From TrEMBL:
Top-level taxon of the source organism: Bacteria
Pfam families: Hydrolase (PF00702)
Organism classification: Bacteria, Pseudomonadati, Pseudomonadota, Betaproteobacteria, Burkholderiales
GO biological process, one term: nucleotide catabolic process
Entry GO MF terms: nucleotidase activity
Parts forming coiled coils: none
Protein's recorded name: Pyrimidine 5'-nucleotidase
Length: 240
């Protein structure tokens, strides 16, 4: 079976710990709602229009419907319309990504202080994820990326919050769930990870879909903070 995690040139110092971190990307490691998400929406709507030869309004409705149902518009386009998934990912993220990424101060320094090996786990495409990490200056902090391109299991794509995805990742990492920390802005992803025994850190972002409906820290969340910097400075992150 192909590897879920694509390795990166890893320069983060090794720590005497077996802890593994899985970091979401958008609205977790950077504020995608600042400018990136609006560009993705525009680019993805254009990709739906181009792929299916439909107008803007219909494409917008399909994009939103498939994202809500499958966790990724690409899956709906592939399942229901036979669109090539990798080609669609390229079309839907075809914009000047670095131009819209908001800089996160001291992020590389803070990441290197946290014990444990770190990976990025995102429902976004691999190429987009690498560009964001490079723009933020933090690519060297991560040992690899698991992006939606790699989430092909048992003949279909299984993005977060798929239990099959999480179980397959744990198997590939050869790490007990209790030693793995998932860092996310999306609560349903954390809830699925907690069912398997992972530790869960919630980065609250007011513009994450459905986040406004939750007040306080759910029982399946181990720590809830309002920024990635706050998490990385916490005792939760710095303990071995």
């Amino acid at each position: 079976m192909p590897r879920l995690i694509q390795p990166l040139p890893y320069k983060n110092p090794l720590h005497n710990t077996q802890k593994v971190w899985l970091f979401d990307l958008d609205n977790t490691l950077h504020d995608a709602s600042h400018a990136v998400f609006s560009q993705i929406d525009k680019s993805m709507t254009r990709a739906v229009m181009q792929s299916l030869h439909i107008d803007y309004n219909e494409a917008t409705q399909l994009r939103q419907r498939y994202w809500e149902r499958y966790g990724a518009t690409m899956i709906g386009m592939h399942r229901h319309h036979g669109v090539d998934p990798l080609e669609f990912l390229h079309l839907s993220h075809d914009f000047d990504i670095p131009k819209y990424v908001k800089h996160e101060p001291r992020l590389a320094y803070l990441l290197t202080r946290v014990p444990g090996i770190k990976y990025v786990l995102t429902n976004a495409p691999y190429g987009y994820a690498r560009q964001v990490l490079q723009t933020l200056g933090i690519e060297h902090c991560f040992a690899g990326i698991c992006a939606i391109d790699q989430m092909y299991l048992r003949g279909d794509y299984h993005p977060k919050p798929s239990t099959l995805l999480f179980k397959s990742l744990l198997h590939e990492l050869q790490t007990p769930a209790r030693q793995v920390v998932l860092v996310e802005d999306t609560l349903k992803n954390l809830k699925a990870a907690k069912r398997l025994g992972m530790q869960c850190a919630h980065i609250y972002h007011p513009h994450t879909p459905f986040s406004a409906t939750y007040d306080g820290r759910p029982g399946y969340v181990d720590i809830r903070v309002h920024s990635i910097q706050a998490l990385l400075l916490s005792d939760f992150a710095l303990s071995r």
